[in-house]
């Protein structure tokens, strides 16, 4: 059975998830900032990080990528459509805000291209391309474990913003309808910000999804 540690990192309180197995190997999702906090959890729990997976490449999800990658010598996974975003502030959004430093992260090590099943050590992950918030947004489903990491595609009672580069409300709603609302009703969805939710809860109460 997998275990989940959740950290809220950086000024926007981005959710970083550390998913660990019985062998204490772990995957780190969206290390947005404050690498020391991530490293503290890894050390305290005697985890062995084996990969970083990014739901997308906006600045608040990538700030600690290089620190964590270099610290543990592990690969970074990102969708191919955002392969240039890590190093370009005008794309990752950091260049949009004067109060935010320009984020320039090294290239991803492994680019995701199609929806597929990933096998990373004992971790079995279904990857869904869920564009709309950004063109290369992906969701990572651990179906046998009953949860998914969904980034900024859907939130508790809301949906991801679509006013950033290459955002599209039409694509976002289609992604939610086709990839997330078709998951088991009680599957736990862990978003990029805020509390967890389920497909059933969002179908019943999310005002943005009325009529889907």
Automatic annotation (TrEMBL):
Task: List, as start-end ranges, the regions of compositional bias called Polar residues.
Answer: 198-212
Taxonomy of the source species:
Bacteria, Bacillati, Bacillota, Bacilli, Bacillales
This protein's name: Metallo-beta-lactamase domain-containing protein
| Superkingdom of this protein's organism | Bacteria
Tell me which species this is from. Answer: Planococcus kocurii
Region annotated Disordered, chain positions: 192-212
Q: Kindly state which keywords UniProt assigns to this record, in alphabetical order.
A: Hydrolase, Metal-binding, Zinc
The family database entries (SUPFAM superfamilies) matched by this protein are listed as: Metallo-hydrolase/oxidoreductase
- One Pfam entry name: Lactamase_B
Residue ranges of the Metallo-beta-lactamase domain? 13-193
Report the cofactors. Zn(2+)
């Amino acid at each position: 059975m997998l275990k989940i540690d959740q950290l809220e990192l950086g000024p926007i309180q981005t959710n970083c998830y550390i998913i660990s197995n019985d062998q204490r190997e772990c995957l780190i999702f969206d290390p947005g900032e404050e690498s020391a906090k991530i490293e503290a959890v890894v050390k305290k729990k005697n985890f062995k990080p084996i990969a970083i997976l990014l739901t997308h490449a906006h600045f608040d999800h990538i700030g600690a990528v290089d620190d964590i990658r270099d610290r543990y010598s592990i690969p970074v996974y990102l969708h191919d459509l955002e392969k240039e975003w890590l190093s370009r502030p005008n794309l990752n959004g950091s260049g949009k805000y004067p109060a935010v430093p320009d984020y320039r992260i090294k290239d991803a090590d492994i680019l995701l291209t199609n929806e597929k099943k990933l096998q990373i050590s004992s971790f079995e992950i279904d990857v869904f391309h869920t564009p709309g918030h950004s063109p290369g947004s992906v969701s990572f489903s651990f179906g046998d474990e009953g949860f998914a990491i969904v980034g900024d595609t859907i939130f508790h009672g809301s949906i991801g913003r679509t006013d950033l580069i290459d955002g599209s409300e039409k694509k976002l709603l289609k992604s939610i309808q086709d990839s997330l609302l078709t998951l088991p009703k009680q599957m736990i969805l862990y978003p990029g910000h805020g509390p967890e939710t389920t497909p059933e809860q969002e179908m019943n109460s999310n005002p943005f999804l009325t009529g889907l």
